[in-house]
Amino acid sequence: MSTFIQQAKEHLQNSGGRMTSQRRLILQTIESFTGHPTAEEIYNRARQMDANLNLSTVYRTLRWMEENEMINSRQFKDDRRQARFDPTSRADHHHFQCEVCGKIIEFEAEQAEQIKQQFENAYEGRVNSISVFLYGICPDCES
Ligand SMILES: [Zn+2]
Ligand SMILES: [Zn+2]
What we know:
The structure is a single chain. By secondary structure, the protein is an alpha+beta fold. The protein has helices at residues 3-15, 21-32, 39-47, 55-67, 111-123, 139-142, and strands spanning 71-74, 84-87, 94-98, 104-107, 133-136. It has a three-stranded mixed beta sheet with strand order 4-3-5, with no helix packed on it. Strands 1-2 form a two-stranded antiparallel sheet. A hairpin with a 5-residue loop joins β3 and β4. The model has no long low-confidence stretch (mean pLDDT 90). One zinc ion (ZN) is lined by residues 98, 100-101, 103, 138, 140-141.
């Protein structure tokens, strides 16, 4: 069984909800992406399997997954308020987006931990998450 469906079942059991076939389809569709799909990309792919699926059902399921910390939404500069969804099961990572082709490259940065410490020392707040976005030109577009 896929990780998302396993996680979803646990959350649903705790909240008295149930697994619907559309919810299952949306979970499987998100898992079939390797990148960072938007809600519409998820919808377009899932709709090929179930023509009755609504975009609002996709949004509702995504919001539910985010509340249960199964995915993160990421807001890239050029996406005009369309969030991209990122499975949180992947290790803590940051994002570079190519301004020419839109490709997203994930990277890790230990320095992010230092920024977090600096902030907490300077402002006495507490940082729960940190996300670095870099924009530029990817190796393919550079050559
Ligand atoms: Zn990512
Ligand atoms: Zn590029």
